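Explain the record.
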Amino acid sequence: MSEENKAFARQWFDNFVSGNFDEQRANMADGHLFHFPLAPVPLEPDAHIGAQQGLLAACPDLSFDLEEQVAEGDIVVTRFVLHGTFQNEFQGVPANGAELSVRGTNMMKIVDGKNAEEWDALDTLGLMQQMGVVPTQG
């Protein structure tokens, strides 16, 4: 089951960067929640899809390098690097053309072959600096 769950998580990332949001929605369990560091509350399915659409619109060349996965029971943890060119406005932040590269970790709970709950932890300060929202020190 662990290998199946890892494959599910890999496909989840692939569907995200491919803009296959109907498939994303179909792979969300009833009651799905997404915990994201920049969101004040967990996101329900519509808000989760909206966040993915917004990031993909801002960085049309978005990709994830999946560096490592560990699975136990119904949990898959994926360590990744997000890459993309900040080409279009994102949540009110004007695009600056920067090449984004942000490390993160995703933990996904997969129940009955669906994404039941998901947590992301990523270098939000680095992301905000690369997007030009927060000045870099130096």
Summary: The domain at 2-130 is CATH 3.10.450.50 (Nuclear Transport Factor 2; Chain: A,). Residues 2-18 form the longest helix (17 residues). The chain is about 30% helix and 35% strand. The chain has a mean pLDDT of 96.
